[in-house]
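Example record used in the benchmark description.
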Amino acid sequence: EGGGGGIKGAQFFPWSIVFWCVVTAVTFDLCLTTGNHDAAISFYERGLAVQLKTLGENHANTAASHNNLAMVHFGKGDADKAIEHFGRMFTIQVKTLGEHHPALTTTYHNFALAFALKGDYGKVAESYERGLAIELRMLGEEHPVVATSYNNIAAALFKLGNLAKAIAFMERAAEIFTKTLGPEHPNTISTQQSLQQLKEDTQ
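Model output (structure tokens):
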């Protein structure tokens, strides 16, 4: 076989492409630091175009770029664009990782934040519930992460005016926090206080 120390299966790109991706990422970070969201979006879209050409639309790096674009649009206050890019990333994740992969919980949470920015609390609750389904499969019922999701769903239900269901979810969150973190933990105390306030509001 031929000599050399090449990495089997490695994929190499022209230096112009590598340089462009690095410059784009650095410029993107600088734009965010200075609060210039439009410039950040422009540079990141160019980087995404390079990734689509060299890696394809279903590559993990392409998904990451969609996520970064979504976060910039979210920071700019453009919920619809954020949801659009989160959706493209989600499609790639489902294709490459499967619909029950733990990484999707973060995407569902990001969807929820974007829908909250838009004021669509029905979609907020739905997104958190889908994330919760994966967390339950992965972590089980008695876990602080699961309790946090119950809390988030309760907050969305409160915004929808479904107080009885919101209380039920928050009670479950309080139970899990108490059991897993103890009654003196800040998460437990905060949830108990919110639950008490919620019950008082319904009287």
